[in-house]
Amino acid sequence: MQIDDLIKTVEDALEELKAKDVVRIDVRELTGVTDYMVIASGGSNRQVSALADNVIEKAKAAGCRPLGVEGKDSGEWVLVDLGDIVVHVMQPATRQFYDLERLWQSAESRRAQQQPTAE
Question: Which helix (H) or strand (E) holds 9?
Answer without folding.
Answer: helix 3-16
